[in-house]
Design goal:
- By secondary structure, this protein is an alpha/beta fold.
- The protein is about 35% helix and about 15% strand.
- It has a 5-stranded parallel beta sheet with strand order 2-1-3-4-5, sandwiched between helices.
- α2 packs parallel to α7 and α3 runs parallel beside α4.
- The protein is globular and about 55 Å long.
């Protein structure tokens, strides 16, 4: 019997979805499939992996969004997504940017702890091979900037985002999961300060590919 490919789940927000820099609020701009970093990562991994890019614009770690809706809550959606794609060999969690919005009133430490809660949900889900524990890789997003049409939505978030790297590193070490830190390696667009230019996509794919291969 031919062996199924391994399954990789990418659990993220608009920067996993492939949203490009916004110039108008509510704009639905998405890079072509071939340009998105999940696609580039799948190409690097080859036919031995099945890559599921589960990116929702506006997704938070564990907060119901009072403006955009409760469906943006990552923790509330995670278990159902895990079960629907089970068995899963590796889960990459790339969240935290939307938590920087002032409406959630959390700091970098809180955001890292929230990602840690997602790690524990994954590990106790029984969604790995033979109902075991899948590998978890956490991605720390790069520092944001308060620019353009998203500046007010993320007011105060740039300063908080500086603390994400050390907070995520401490959490990842405590939880015993691998960390891919995009700080300094990937930059946000000067257009809206949140999303990435297409030129950043290969770098993201390269860094996560290296972590998976490690």
């Amino acid at each position: 019997m031919e062996q199924d490919p391994k399954t990789l789940l990418l659990f993220g927000d608009s920067n996993t979805h492939g949203t490009g820099p916004l110039t108008v609020l509510g704009q639905q701009e998405r890079y072509p499939l071939a340009q998105r970093w999940p696609t580039l990562l799948a190409q690097k991994l080859g036919a031995t992996w099945r890559v599921i890019d589960e990116g929702l614009p506006g997704r938070t770690t564990l907060h119901d969004d009072p403006v955009e809706g409760p469906h943006k809550n990552g923790a509330a959606a995670l278990l159902g997504i895990l079960e629907s794609h089970s068995p899963i060999d590796t889960v990459v969690v790339k969240l935290g940017t939307n938590d920087l919005k002032p409406r959630f009133s959390v700091n970098a430490f809180d955001i890292a702890q929230s990602v840690g809660k997602l790690v524990r949900i994954i590990r106790t889900s029984g969604c790995g091979p033979a109902r075991g524990v899948p590998r978890v890789i956490v991605v720390c997003p790069p520092q944001i900037e308060e620019r353009g049409v998203l500046a007010e939505m993320f007011r105060g978030g740039a300063a908080k985002s500086v603390g994400l790297s050390p907070a995520m590193a401490e959490m990842a070490a405590r939880e015993g999961v691998d960390l891919v830190d995009l700080t300094g390696a990937v930059t946000v667009s000067s257009v809206d300060g949140i999303h990435y230019e297409a030129t950043q996509m290969p770098r993201i794919a390269e860094l996560i590919f290296a972590a998976i291969q490690n």
